[in-house]
Amino acid sequence: MSQEILIAGGGIGGLVAALSLKAAGFAPRVFEQVREPRPLGVGINLLPHAVRELTELGLAEMLAGNAVATRELLYVSAHGQVIWREDRGLAAGYRWPQYSIHRGVLQMKLLEAARARGIPVETGRRVAGFAQDAEGVTARFEQGGEARGAALIGADGIHSRIRAHFAPGEGPPCWNGAILWRATTVAAPYLTGASMVQAGHHDQKFVCYPIRHLPDGRVLTNWIAEMKVDPAQGFAREDWNREVDRARFLSHYEGWNWGWLDVPGLIRGAEQVFEYPMVDRDPLPRWTDGRVTLLGDAAHPMYPIGSNGASQAILDARQLALQLARAKGDVPAGLAAYEAERRPPTAKLTLANRALGPDVILEEVHRRAPHGFTDLYAVISREELETTAAEYKRLAGFDPALLNARESWSVGA
Question: What angle do CA 366, 280, 290 make, to 5 degrees?
Fold first, then answer.
């Protein structure tokens, strides 16, 4: 009989874990606190290492039909001057594309795939605590009742109840004073029609990329405006994902129309704008206790720099299934091996993102040439730009040569 694995959280990481465990011969059960899952959120990026894993789960056609294959990435100064441009996905030599997709659409498609493959997904059930013994683990629900399985996976996000077991008294997430305003806007395509742009500097940034091509030739463009404010003002939990008036920040971007990209036009064109504090948490010294472990934002919430949050949760999910399968029934050993594979690199990535990750080149150019430049390479060398980009790819696990060559993480049932 298949070992039953309990998963707290029906987000992207939890659902990919369920699909991976099912493929590896386990019997996953997903418990999602939301009673009626809906396609919420805005855009996210799936880097080639994550797309590889979803492809090996049989989801390539779903991705291609619901996402935009990213063609290039540009880093641009606050004056609209291109600092760095690189190909992405297939154009960069990867065997798998890079995709930009609506987070809610991806989650709903993963939920649909899980149910189609016979995975129970129980909604309106939030795991509040657990107890374990030598034979298994019992999850207790906030709404009452229990469930028993061979393991419990905490994929319940940045406010994870299960993480609290590993970090009692941790308190709220760490906030550095940056506020994110996120939205989508239907607009004309820019550049290649599949270009991702990171513009500005540490104190004021703008990120945008298309997430859907529309029949009339326009694109649904996801954008994020980011600004630093005084951290002393603090933020409250209710500030998460709340709709705000764009007048709060639009004036700071009025001059950011560079012909090829109209930033204030994108901001004005959005139907709704949502505000988030930019937060993370300190890396934990451990994720695993016997038959219980963490995954995704519950394990390693990180700043949305380098387009890595969802991708890292997908990598977690795939390694979890692989290591549990290799453990051949020894669940604690499998979870310990999973943590050994995933905790060190995600801890490094969390700290690298705090240090601006690949976005450090925006800050360096702004620091050295705050009023713009006439000769980029007099400000920053091509070698420095290339090294920054390459080192982040290696750190985050999507160096093209290494990714193309590494063995599959798929496990047959």
Answer: 145
Q: Is 324:338 a contact under the CB 8 Å cutoff?
A: yes
**Three-state secondary structure string covering the chain:** CCCEEEEECCCHHHHHHHHHHHHCCCEEEEEECCCCCCCCCCEEEECHHHHHHHHHCCCHHHHHHHCEECCEEEEECCCCCEEEEEECHHHHCCCCCCEEEEHHHHHHHHHHHHHHCCCCEEECCCEEEEEECCCCEEEEECCCCEEEECEEEECCCCCCCCHHHHCCCCCCCEEEEEEEEEEEEEECCCCCCCEEEEEEECCEEEEEEEEEECCCCCEEEEEEEEEECCHHHCCCHHHCCEECCHHHCHHHHCCCECCCCEHHHHHHHCCCCEEEEEEECCCCCCCCECCEEECHHHCCCCCCCCCCHHHHHHHHHHHHHHHHHHCCCCHHHHHHHHHHHHHHHHHHHHHHHHCCHHHHHHHHHHHHCCCCCCCHHHHCCHHHHHHHHHHHHHHHCCCHHHHHHCCCCCCCC
pLDDT digits (tens, 9 = 90+) for 177-235: 899 999 999 999 999 999 999 999 999 999 999 999 999 999 999 999 999 987 777 67
Structure token pair of residue 185: 């806007």
Is residue 51 within 8 A of residue 98, CB to CB? The reply is: yes
- Determine whether 35 is exposed, middle or buried from the number of CB atoms within 10 Å of its CB (0-12, 13-18, 19+): exposed
pLDDT tens string 238-296: 455 788 999 999 999 999 999 999 999 999 999 999 998 889 999 999 999 999 999 99
pLDDT above 80: residue 1: no
Distances (CA, A) of 83 to 170, 192, 359, 365: 39, 17, 11, 8
| pLDDT tens by residue, 34-60 | 999 888 888 999 999 999 999 999 999
Give the model's confidence band at 62: pLDDT under 50 very low, under 70 low, under 90 confident, else very high.
very high
Q: How far apart are CA 48 and CA 311, in angstroms?
A: 9
What's CA 8's distance to the chain center, in Å? 18
For residue 352 the two structure tokens come to 């690298």
Please state, in angstroms and rounded to a whole number, the distance separating the CA atoms of residues 254 and 264: 5
Q: Which of 220, 221, 217, 219 is nearest to 208 (CA)?
A: 221
Nearest by Cα to 90 from 381, 400, 336: 400
First to last CA, the chain: 12
